[in-house]
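Exam revision sheet. Question 4 asks you to relate a sequence to its structure. Input first:
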Amino acid sequence: MTEDLSPAERYAASRIRAAEEATALHPFRAMYDFDLDPFQIEACEALEAGKGVLVAAPTGSGKTIVGEFAVHLALTQGGKCFYTTPIKALSNQKYQDLVKRYGASKVGLLTGDNSVNADAPVVVMTTEVLRNMLYAGSQSLRGLAYVVMDEVHYLSDRFRGAVWEEVIIHLPESVTLVSLSATVSNAEEFGDWLDTVRGDTDVIVSEHRPVPLWQHVLAGRKMYDLFEESDDGRGGRREVNPDLLRMARLENQKTYHPRDRRKGKTVREADRERERRSRTRIWTPSRAEVIERLDSAGLLPAITFIFSRAGCEAAVQQCMYAGLRLNDEDARQRVREIVEERTASIPGEDLHVLGYYEWLEGLERGIAAHHAGMLPTFKEVVEELFVRGLVKAVFATETLALGINMPARSVVLEKLVKWNGEQHADITPGEYTQLTGRAGRRGIDVEGHAAVLWQRGMDPTALAGLAGTRTYPLRSSFRPSYNMAVNLVQQFGRHRSRELLETSFAQFQADRSVVGISKQVQRNEEGLEGYKEGMTCHLGDFEEYAAMRRDLKDRETELAKQGAAQRRAAAADSLEKLRTGDVIHVPTGKFAGLALVLDPGVPAGRTNGHRRGFEHHDGPRPLVLTAERQVKRLAEIDFPVPVEALERMRIPKSFNPRSPQSRRDLASQLRSKAGHLAPERQRRGRAAAADDREIARLRAALRAHPCHGCDEREDHARWAERYHRLRRDTRQLENRIEGRTNTIARTFDRIYGLLTELDYLRGDEATEHGKRLARLYGELDLLASECLREGVWEGLGPADLASCVSALVYEARQSDDAVAPKVPGVAAKAALGEMVRIWGRLDALEEEHRINQAEGVGQREPDLGFAWAVHMWASGKGLDEVLREAEMPAGDFVRWCKQVIDVLGQVAAAAPREGSTVTKNARKAVDAVLRGVVAYSSVG
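Answer key, structure tokens:
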């Protein structure tokens, strides 16, 4: 090829090659056995040019390559790089990856649980660890050149998302930030904010999936493509598969029911219909059938997402009962060797409690569950075996989709609805993208497959919309906290802290949303000027005259509503007086005319016009027989005016309202006895407006106003009405602007006010109490600080102290107010009671300062649900006994114990040094809890 070039062109090409070889990117690219994608090269080049980068790309596209290049640059330049992740499992995985590439001496790990080689030039950590280092002014920040924030879209998480923004805002200016995100629809907006707070930042967005993804629906015995390519002469379009649409229509058609015989169908017709439906029956395949089908189609390994831990465990059992075996004998042997090696440190007596043998049998067959309720070691083994191809079917909750490098050939979604902590809600396009993004292994699979199981009532068009929406917006969840406020004021003073908070992404988005509203306000104000000109009257102030007309109209409307309400009340009272056997005249509605009361229908709590207890919101609903033989339950709406009994009739005891003959006979008697009776005509009373002094005054003032005699009065009035409506709309928009601007700063001011009242802050300084609060992180930071301040935990033994601290971190997955939680002995019980009392005082203070927990700010009530379990464990009880008492999975138990250990460490550091037993006992409590299953290292 070069022979065809001129000498000048060959020289130019050699210069370009030499320039490329002189870059840090050139040797980095040589470290991989595949060529980098254009978006990866673009991001790496921007990094080498000294810019920050935001990389938004689909799951599995290889955006972590850019983060690894930041590590490479730091090592090349002799600086430091911190690689942050949202979850410990992902930190552990990234640590292992970097150790393989650069060696254990150059890579460290900090996750709260583990501290490995913390002074290394490259340290992998959870984002909270970096946030805490920034507030503490850690010496480890010296020489920091790059920070990689993996899964940065996590900042929209309503519980932990604020930490990402805190880190981005507070990192030293000299640090280059590498932000790695899933594909979000407002990447440019997020990039603009990064540009504002971090300096020059390039936004690199890639929509390209390196492995194409095919979407399917599994129904009955078949796997249907969700989309069908249609060539319409315009390059082809993706249409929803017509077979799926036909199935949905067929399922929605009326199906056979035994009651059909009552509706006139013969037994033979009903049987024929049932037979026809059975031939075209669509069903949801079982979990074992799904795995067998994928296996026969060569689509394993697969991850099936089930939004329930119990569902994941049940799925494994169902596959085992169905006799599924996905591994041969060699694979079974390798599985057993790896499992035994990785679980060698677990005591034999604990293995049975943990369900080890059932778990191992599933693994040997190539089947496993993966969810947060599992022991961390068990989850890591599942991940390792899946990556090695020794586990081929995993049933997982959505937590697996969070960045862990565990790609599959296929992904299956059982349902498109999940429990979000408050209610069952449809999964969002972003969640669908994140889950199905696991399908297709780069360098292994030619294509990935995502399948959704057919469910009754499924709408294929809605599913296509979900699958076709590849992006979702990034929304800030940032809110100031007590700990944040103290740390900021301590470092920067009140005024500067307020300014820093106003640079948050939350405020940036709020201000941007205000721009459009402000423009609408400006347009409205221009319109108001035009309307004002249109209503100008040469005789006087028409705006004043229009206001009087509105006041008159409002007063008349108010009186009319009062009159209607009084009539409704009178009608309701008259209905309550009805008795069985009364003959009445229904004044209006579909069943107007003569009727016999079969049942007065007075709600429980009212009898014979007397109200007992409470008022039923529906009012009386009499059951009547009409003169046309219909039995109907009427409502208050059928009686706009009071009703009176015209006559009384005896209803035979043999009367059956379901019998046409009974109805016919009684209706005939009704017509004979009362057919000649006419209801008394309701006389309309004098309108309230006629005697109202305010209405009389306004009418007189209108007649006396100069504009009343204007020939163009009604034209002016129309312009005035438009002016009034537009001015009302404009005021609403202005209120919205006022509510959105400075929202973060206003919340900070309220927190500052409360902390000042409690003597945590004085002006621009943090008091001794404030400095203690600055070392306490978590949802209940202020409650923990107040407990230390009031000596609530003084004198408690290690197990009692652990049980008290558990109330600060534990939060039940489902609240159970019916059962009081079991709490330990006298000392711990008294301390826990005092903690709840202090929380009540803080809650009242928050209400006084308008600090709203619904907005993500403030202290929730401490949860005592884990106190007994952690007390038993810290007292040395066995795992079997503790888990039986706690009634929770081992994984949950370990996770809560580790969070208790984390806060115990904070309490030990924050407690008073002199005359306090808390520091010593907190450290003893850490040692007491950090044993057995809790102490198993998650770093191999």
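Marking note for examiners. Residues 254-265, 275-280, 605-617 have pLDDT under 50 and may be disordered.
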